[in-house]
């Protein structure tokens, strides 16, 4: 056993000397020795494993530091890309269709228009609903919201809820807005009770249920929802919620300060343009 131990020890020492010898060559001869070092390690991979075993704590520290650096670099790159996209869309905003008869939350002539692509059953859209309420409180009549539909396939009640909303809108925009609020403030009930809850919500907001039953399946309602989904696809919104703030996109359930950054920037630009015209 002692002999086996001695042989193993000698073998490890030999491998270590090979590694350090290769590193020494790299230092002395520069980049031309990189292939030599790679060959040495390729021929003797256990060298690396043995070094890790001898210094496990240091190895973990180095790996964690590398991960942190990579994450920071990735975040910085993402932030730069996002800023570049924002600048481009401020110069060349997207142009959604806002047809006559569309339900609008807020003052119709507000200077800031937020077009929202949403799914009544999506939990992130529920967050977006609360955020939009905050934005309305911040800006009042300066902001209006156009609610559009992007019901996702894996939310079985999203499409029926969208149809209910548009069918109620045919009757009364105010009732449609109340229905919208009722669904998002009680989304758990929608998940648990399905269409039973939709009917109860429609009744609660004062919709004519007999007319509602006819309009839900109407061609006009189906076409509007299909057009919303197609437009969302055109603007590359694949998930919900998605927003266009005077044509500048915001993808996901971002908090109110992110909306504020874009809105303040746009209002400042509009103010500057107005000042120049006045001159």
Number of spatially distinct domains: 2
Overall pLDDT: 84
- End-to-end gap: 97 Å
| Percentage of residues in helical conformation | 55-70%
Annotation, overall tally of beta strands? 5
Q: Count of helices?
A: 12
- Tell me the quaternary state: single chain
Task: From the alpha carbons, calculate the radius of gyration and give it in angstroms.
Answer: 30 Å
CATH-level-2 architecture of the largest domain: 3-Layer(aba) Sandwich
What order do the SSEs take from the amino end to the carboxyl end, as H and E?
HHHHEEHEHHHHHHEEH
The largest β sheet comes out as: 5 strands, mixed
Query: Helices and strands: which structural class?
Result: alpha+beta
- Which shape, going by the Cα principal axes? elongated
Low-pLDDT regions: 1-32, 272-279
Strand order of the largest sheet: 1-3-2-4-5
The name of the CATH superfamily of the largest domain reads Glutaredoxin
């Amino acid at each position: 056993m002692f002999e086996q131990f001695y042989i193993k020890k000698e073998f490890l020492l030999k491998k270590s000397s090979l590694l350090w010898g290769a590193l020494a060559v790299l230092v002395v001869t520069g980049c031309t020795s990189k292939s030599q070092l790679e060959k040495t390690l390729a021929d003797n991979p256990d060298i690396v494993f043995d070094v890790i075993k001898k210094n496990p704590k240091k190895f973990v520290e180095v790996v964690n530091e590398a991960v942190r650096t990579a994450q920071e670099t990735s975040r910085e790159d993402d932030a730069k890309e996002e800023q570049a996209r924002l600048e481009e869309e401020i110069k060349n905003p997207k142009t959604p269709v806002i047809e006559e008869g569309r339900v609008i939350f807020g003052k119709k002539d507000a200077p800031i228009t937020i077009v929202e692509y949403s799914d009544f059953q999506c939990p992130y859209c529920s967050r977006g609903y609360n955020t939009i309420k905050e934005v309305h409180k911040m800006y009042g009549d300066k902001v209006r919201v156009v609610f559009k539909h992007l019901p996702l396939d894996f939310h079985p009640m999203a499409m029926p809820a969208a149809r209910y909303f548009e069918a109620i809108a045919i009757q009364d925009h105010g009732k449609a807005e109340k229905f919208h609020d009722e669904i998002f403030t009680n989304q758990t009930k929608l998940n648990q009770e399905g269409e039973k809850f939709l009917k109860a919500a429609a009744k609660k907001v004062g919709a004519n249920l007999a007319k509602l039953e006819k309009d839900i399946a109407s061609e006009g309602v189906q076409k509007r929802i299909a057009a919303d989904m197609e437009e969302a696809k055109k603007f590359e919104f694949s998930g919900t919620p998605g927003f266009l703030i005077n044509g500048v996109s915001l993808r996901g359930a971002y908090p109110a300060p992110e909306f504020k950054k874009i809105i303040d920037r746009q209002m400042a630009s509009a103010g500057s343009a107005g000042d120049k015209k006045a001159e």
